[in-house]
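Exercise 7.
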Amino acid sequence: MKPRKALETIVPYTPGKLKEGAVKLASNENPLGPSPKALERLKSVLPGLSLYPDAAFVRLRQAVAGRLGVAPENLIFGNGSDELLCLAAGTYIEEGDDAVTSQSTFSEYTFATVLFGGHMTYAPLKDGRFDLPALAALTGPRTRIVFLCNPNNPTGTVFSGDELSRFLEKVSRDVLVVLDEAYYEYVGWDEFPRSVELLGAHPNVLILRTFSKIYGLAGLRVGYGIAREEVIRNLSRAKTPFNVNLAAQEAALAALEDDEFVERSVAMNAEGKRYLYREFDRLGLRYYPTEANFVCVHLNRDGTEVFERIMDMGVTIRPLRSFGMADWIRVTVGTPEQNRLFISCLQRVLKG
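Solution. The predicted structure, written as tokens, is:
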């Protein structure tokens, strides 16, 4: 049997590394763990796991719609937002079509595009940020999707609402603009796009958000997309039934009501960022100020070597060679104790 030719060029995703017993600051997970309300709900639903989940997501759809101020028909749910990236590519990309994104961003944009026979074109980051004018200039007659990551993974940088509005005016409405806002709840910048409000004027926008980060449900895989009803209908035709399991749906429903946990997570993240900034300044390291729950740090030396030495000391972080940033690392903002341990390990490595 011969696999499809497109698979020959796909580079498998490189996940954050696990090491038994190590503190994991490699994958931008919530260091407080899952939402307590989600954990309580999970205990109560376990006896019902012999049943199929709600394929229509009725309760979760209504709850998220109520939070966002949109109609339930403006939502689609996925097995993490990764699945929604594949649904977008599978819905809109034909063999030989193009997509556009930045260099040094989430690799699954390229994976989804190439999986369906498309070709990805890249614009360089500008000061660690998505260069929206450059991305708009790269779109052409075969462009079907533009993938924007805001805040960007791995740099944590953002673009403003005004910048996004100007970009959308330049891009053809025949191009789907996927706006990945996985870290949306951590953002504190006043000029961050109010992306949901753009849907009325821009029918070609798909916003992606997730329960993996702020709600601490990465292991359950629940993401959702927000778009005009016609986009949701098209994406739904490519979706498998029962794609988000029963436990995940129930945990997401409960987590959505856990405002205290979200506030605590945001506050601890802000405190952790301030501490890490101070320590990086003290160590003379350049970094990107972040609106997410991680910091991207320039080391002026091989990031993989630093990663391996820190891992031997009991902490895992993310080297960024796979993002095209060989002398950078990305570290998740952890608890105060985890942050201090990481800095202690990093300092020892840099002195050695």
